[in-house]
Amino acid sequence: MTAPHRHPHTDPAAHPEHRHDHRQDGHADDHGHDHPSGLKGWLHEVFVPHSHDAADSIDDALEASGQGIRAVKISLVVLGLTAAAQLAIVAISGSVALLADTIHNFSDALTAIPLWIAFVLGRRAATNRYTYGFGRVEDLAGLFIVAMIALSAIVAGVESVRRLAVPQPLDNLGWVLAAGVIGFAGNEAVAVYRIRVGRRIGSAALLADGVHARADGFTSLAVVLGVIGVWAGFPLADPIVGMLITAAILVLLWGTARDVGRRLLDGVDPDLTQRARHTLERTAGIEHVTDVRLRWTGHRLAIQARVCLDPDMTITMADQATAAAAHDLRHALPAVGDVDITTTAKPAHPAITGR
After folding, report:
1. How far is CA 220 from the centre of its chain?
2. Which residues cross the membrane (predicted)?
3. How confident is the model over 17-43, as a mean pLDDT?
């Protein structure tokens, strides 16, 4: 048997694992995804507004957290004004049903507070106990928001069934319609804003909060459509539309729970994994990519890779190769945080075996 050639600087026996931990911020290019077009594409965007693992994420972690906190603050103000406007209509119309819906909107607006706390905690440095930092608090907030969306679906469904079984007349229809329009407009504006920022910074939790606002907007839309149905001489329109809206919220719930659950289980878009592998394979000096692992920590993407280098490389050349690989990864993938590349030497000549 012919023994493989090993360079003294990259010999695995002398340097079993040559580790390079690159934590500098870089640039993340956008990348395209295939989407349905036309009406199907619009429906897909409304009901399944998933993040594509943050294709549009920005680079700097502190800036991303700052944008997340700003989005939460603005959302709280808009939803607060929406609920206040509905409360004014309640005072004028005296509708108990509208009062209950207004209280519901106020409570839903406050669900953004755990996400605000998560963004603040995510900025804290790692400790001896939490050595990976506190980015996962954001994913826990996303789990809480998923639970709130589920609660919205349950409340809407139970109320619709109750009104279908025991029809109740709607009073002050004009005021009810006005409150529903205000509720839908305010919640949908917040939903669009949260989803856009969530995609930009790579936050599944903020996306989930946007979906939560959209679910509440659908509930208000059900009120509007119900009033129109009653005016058209079909009093059962209110509970029937409510049941349809409940089904729509369940669709939103499924997509959001899937995305948040994947984050908690360290799932990523397979396209990101393939792009990371191809980027490493194209880096000069890297002969073979043994393993690539990606995971989200909050809204930052951590990358670990094990590669084999050209056996004729020196340690300095190996450092340059891995630095170039980390730089290329930050250009090829979104919201990259830590990049940890472990290198070993590849034999200069393959071993010859025989019987």
Report:
1. 25
2. 76-100, 106-122, 143-161, 173-195, 215-234, 240-257
3. 47
pLDDT tens-digit map of 146-203: 888 888 788 878 888 887 887 766 667 788 888 889 989 999 999 999 999 888 888 8
- Give dist(CA 310, CA 286) in Å, integer: 6
Per the listing, tokens 């994913």 go with: 139
Q: Compute the distance between CA of residue 196 and CA of residue 200 in angstroms, rounded to an integer.
A: 6
The 3-state DSSP class for residue 342 equals strand
pLDDT, tens only, 258-309:
888 888 898 988 999 999 999 999 988 888 899 999 998 888 889 999 999 8
pLDDT of residue 306: 92
Parallel, antiparallel or unpaired: strands 336-345 and 300-309: parallel
Domain 1-44+269-355 part of CATH 3.30.70.1350? yes
In the structure encoding, which two tokens stand for residue 200, read together? 């930009």
| Residue labelled with tokens 């993040």 | 51
Cβ(303)–Cβ(293) below 8 Å: yes
Taking each helix axis from N to C end, the angle separating 136-165 and 112-122, rounded to the nearest 10 degrees, works out to 170
Q: Residues spanned by CATH 3.30.70.1350 within the chain?
A: 1-44+269-355
* C-alpha pair distances (Å), 293 with each of 188, 306, 309, 339, 341: 37, 9, 18, 10, 10
Give the model confidence (pLDDT) of 310-323 as tens digits.
888 888 888 899 89
Residues 6+ apart with CB under 8 A from 71: 193, 194, 197, 198, 206
Phi-psi region of 340 (alpha: psi -120 to 50; beta: other; left: phi over 0): beta
The confidence band for 51, taking pLDDT boundaries of 50, 70 and 90, is: low
Q: Are 222 and 156 in contact (CB under 8 A)?
A: yes
E-strand stretches of the chain: 18-22, 286-297, 300-309, 336-345
- Where does the chain hold its CATH 1.20.1510.10 domain(s)? 54-264
Task: Name which of 247, 240, 200, 154 is nearest 55 in CA terms.
Answer: 200
Reported as type and span, the H/E element at residue 217 is helix 204-231
The contacts of residue 272 (CB under 8 Å, 6+ apart) are: 53, 294, 301, 333, 334
Q: Which fold has domain 54-264?
A: Alpha-lytic protease prodomain-like (1.20.1510)
